[in-house]
Known about the structure:
Elements: E1 14-15, H1 18-28, E2 36-39, H2 47-54, E3 57-61, H3 64-73, E4 80-84, E5 101-106, H4 112-120, E6 126-134, H5 135-141, H6 152-160, E7 161-169, E8 174-175, E9 182-189, H7 194-212, H8 218-221, H9 228-233, H10 247-258
Parallel strand pairs: 2-3, 2-5, 3-4, 5-6
Antiparallel strand pairs: 1-8, 6-9, 7-9
Helix pairs in contact: 4-6, 7-10
Amino acid sequence: MSAHRPRKRFGQHFLRDAGVIGRIVAAIDPRPGQRLVEIGPGEGVLTGPVLARAGRLDVVELDRDLATTLARRLGEPQGLVIHQADALDFDFSGLASEGPMRVIGNLPYNISTPLLFHLFDQAEAIEDMVFMLQKEVVDRLVAEPGSRQYGRLSVMASYHCEMAWLFDVPPEAFEPPPKVDSAIIRMRPRVLSASERALRPDLDRVVKAAFGQKRKTLRNSLKNLLDVERIEATGVDPAARPETLSLDRFLALARALGGG
């Protein structure tokens, strides 16, 4: 079957390097009985070896041409379930009826951040995630307070997941080569208590407001949510900038917003 022409509007860059593919499959370590879900299988370079080791694999593919030809490309294997759908709208938790699932994939770089937030919303149904992402996004995911990359994504990702940067992938491993470096990351959702889950909406509001005006102090960026006295009552300096605050400090502010 002829190669699929990558579509810019879907942010498609197809992995071609066999060595990199092997390292990713080894990092995933798929096994029989696991519920695995792949986002954006493309031409199936990860799909084939993962399915061979796991025996079953659900894939979510937006590109109709790829979705309708994937099974044929792979020789009509048993255990492959194809969902032709937009991952940004897909109900991943609906696939976890038999227990937590593992989510993998080379995420489209043009939607990676909103897609990660969509998955955070369903984190309770997920055991772990192994993704290839733009290296800049991985930088932001694992960034520490005070660093240039630290922002809303860093805070919310650390709230939901434990993360491990596995290895980098150069542009020449793809066709067409992207203009950026890539990296593989493992994200393992934390087990949150009921009170921690209930805090999520207030945490999201505080973090979004704080980093919406990153150069401003908390006194100014949070003025529509918390006054100076309530900020000070949490032990946080109202004159601080959001990029200096740890997750614990943001959680304190969220509790103040929620009245807890």
